[in-house]
Write a sequence for this structure.
């Protein structure tokens, strides 16, 4: 499911939300311009769990690739050493939030942030929203770190922080509605769901995949625990801040 819009207009300009989107865009363009991301931006600013759990270790990734040899195609393992960080290892919990693995990763993250972030910033204020975004992003990174502390694989993307924004949205706007589309081959049906239901389905998918990764399943290169942990952190943060959920009366007359 892909959200198209919600029915809660912002009362203020989401300055911080736009700033985050802009910083992510600049970082992504810098990644695209980099001739060797593995030894440059990604190795310098991505969060590598092994760096935090064992600062003296050198992270080494192993890849299986098909290689044409005189005897035919053979599968060989390639070892790739991850270069040193450009900032202190703990700081990569923050810098990794502005990096992305590809166009779909970047566009998907920014679209979800655009849909849900403005309303959360509207309720928490600019400073409160900035704290929520960075704080839940760090907690999401720590959730991924705890799930796989010895991983040498660089972790990048704002997904954990955006999951935190979504968790806060689900708590702060229980009566919101989301217009979504479900791509099915050549048809694209649209439908309206309550905001918490849409986000709840998303969260359950992340949680199921997180539990599957602990059970020995393939994570597919996705930090599922960062998504689930960030969502929970965002909902709890919104609860602790003490902002009451938006009442039904405030949104009952809105239409798409």
């Amino acid at each position: 499911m892909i959200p198209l819009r919600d029915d809660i207009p912002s009362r203020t300009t989401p300055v911080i939300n736009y700033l985050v989107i802009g910083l992510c865009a600049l970082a992504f363009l810098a990644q695209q311009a980099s001739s060797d991301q593995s030894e440059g931006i990604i190795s310098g600013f991505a969060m590598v769990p092994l760096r935090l759990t064992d600062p003296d270790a050198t992270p080494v990734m192993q890849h299986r690739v098909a290689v044409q040899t005189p005897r035919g195609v053979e599968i060989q393992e390639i070892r790739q050493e991850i270069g040193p960080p450009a900032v202190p290892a703990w700081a990569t919990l923050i810098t990794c939030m502005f990096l992305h693995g590809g166009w779909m990763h970047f566009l998907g993250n920014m679209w979800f942030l655009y849909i849900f972030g403005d309303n959360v910033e509207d309720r928490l204020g600019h400073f409160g929203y900035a704290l929520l975004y960075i704080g839940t992003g760090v907690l999401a990174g720590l959730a991924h770190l705890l799930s796989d502390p010895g991983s040498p694989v660089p972790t990048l993307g704002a997904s954990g922080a955006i999951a935190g924004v979504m968790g806060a949205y689900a708590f702060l706007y229980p009566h919101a509605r989301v217009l979504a589309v479900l791509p099915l081959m050549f048809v694209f049906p649209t439908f309206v769901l309550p905001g918490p239901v849409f986000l709840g389905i998303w969260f359950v998918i992340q949680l199921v995949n997180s539990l599957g990764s602990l059970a020995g399943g393939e994570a597919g290169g996705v930090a599922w625990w960062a998504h689930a942990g960030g969502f929970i952190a965002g909902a709890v943060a919104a609860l602790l801040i003490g902002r009451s959920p938006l009442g039904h009366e405030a949104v009952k007359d809105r239409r798409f």
Q: What stands out?
A: The chain has eight helices and five strands. The first strand starts at residue 2 and ends at 6. The chain has one domain: 2-52+88-250.
